[in-house]
């Protein structure tokens, strides 16, 4: 009898994933060239879904400050994802174009340039490691809006900065604001990514601020002057 209940339970889990898999493929327009490939991708989907469930259960118990959800990358291996959607080229930094700011000037406790009209829609990079292009053009778009009061969506891949700093960082993103979360009291950076609106919170993520340079977010910080 115990074995029967275990078998039924496993069947329910597989059935649940199968239904979710069908809906997920339709939502994200996923098609595969063969049964073998789809079988592999379904396996990755199930493994990622289980990781999400485990993480969110832990988050409910206060072990994490964020939750996870399935998105368009749910059928990828971690190695595939890192190879295709990161890839910040690291160069050398001479300090020749460094601008020293006046730290005595007071700054507001909250900034959100998306509410001020200075941020274009979230883009989705293809499988080519082009995050640097989207973050660069995003910063130029924002500065252009601030100076000219007109928001333009520049094309990616035409602005190259040869003076980027070099550290162990492999993803370029655009910080569009900062603040303090009222519920948790945690300081955060509001970050715009280039992985489409199905990722994060409609393409955005709140990264920990004043927390030992979380993920190296301040390591290669730069902005254009127009």
TrEMBL record:
One of its GO terms (molecular function) is cysteine-type endopeptidase activity. PANTHER family: CYSTEINE PROTEASE FAMILY C1-RELATED (PTHR12411). It comes from Lepeophtheirus salmonis (Salmon louse). It comes from the Eukaryota. The keyword Hydrolase applies. Keywords: Hydrolase. CDD domains: Peptidase_C1A. Belongs to the peptidase C1 family. This is CTSL.
């Amino acid at each position: 009898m115990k074995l029967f209940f275990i078998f039924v339970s496993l069947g329910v889990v597989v059935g649940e994933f199968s239904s979710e898999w069908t809906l997920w493929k339709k939502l994200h327009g996923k098609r595969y060239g063969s049964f073998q490939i789809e079988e592999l991708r379904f396996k990755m989907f199930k493994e990622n879904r289980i990781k999400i469930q485990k993480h969110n259960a832990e988050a409910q118990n206060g072990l994490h400050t964020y939750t996870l959800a399935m998105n368009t990358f749910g059928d990828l291996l971690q190695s595939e994802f890192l190879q295709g959607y990161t890839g910040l080229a690291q160069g050398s930094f001479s300090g020749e174009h460094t601008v020293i700011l006046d730290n005595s000037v007071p700054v507001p406790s909250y900034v959100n340039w998306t509410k001020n009209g200075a941020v274009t829609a979230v883009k989705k990079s293809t499988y080519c490691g082009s995050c640097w292009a989207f973050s660069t053009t995003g910063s130029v778009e924002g500065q252009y809006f601030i100076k000219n009061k007109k928001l333009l969506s520049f094309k990616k891949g035409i602005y190259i900065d040869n003076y980027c700093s070099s550290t162990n960082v492999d993803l370029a993103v655009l910080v569009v604001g900062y603040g303090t979360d009222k519920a948790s009291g945690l300081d955060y950076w509001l970050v715009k990514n280039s992985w489409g609106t199905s990722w994060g919170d409609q393409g955005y993520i709140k990264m920990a601020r004043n927390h030992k340079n979380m993920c190296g977010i301040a390591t290669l910080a730069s902005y254009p002057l127009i």
